[in-house]
Amino acid sequence: MAKPNIEEVVQQIAQETSTPQETVSRMYEDTFAQYNEGAVIRDYLHVLVAKRVRENLRHSSSSKH
Predict the structure, then answer these.
(1) Which residues of the chain have pLDDT under 50?
(2) What pLDDT sits at residue 4?
(3) What angle separates helix 45-64 from helix 6-17, to the nearest 10 degrees?
(4) In this predicted structure, what is the pLDDT of residue 14?
C-alpha cells in the first residue's frame, strides 16, 4: 500500500474542520505515535489515524456549540 502524502492529508483535514494546519499536524503526529506503538500491521495506519483526527476535531467542534 502506498504511503499517503501526510502534508496533503493534514491540509485536507484542516480545511474540512476549519482547524489551523499546525493543530491538525500536531494531532496527527500524536495520534500516529499512539497507534504505531505496538502495532503489528501498519498497512492502514495512516487511514486510521486520519479518521481518528477527523472524528476528534468534529467532536470537539460540536461540543463547543
Answers:
(1) none
(2) 81
(3) 20
(4) 98
Backbone phi and psi for residue 41, each to the nearest 5 degrees, phi listed first: -110, 125
Query: What CA–CA distances, in Å, run from 27 to 31, 38, 47, 50, 52?
Result: 6, 19, 14, 10, 10
Could you tell me where the DSSP H helices lie in the chain?
Answer: 6-17, 21-36, 45-64
Structure-block grid coordinates of residue 43? 498497512
Alpha carbon distance 46, 51 (integer Å): 9
- Per-residue confidence (pLDDT) for residue 39, from 0 to 100: 92
The cell 501498519 sits on which residue?
42
Instruction: Choose among 39, 64, 62, 63: nearest CA to 49.
Output: 39
Residue 1 pLDDT: 62
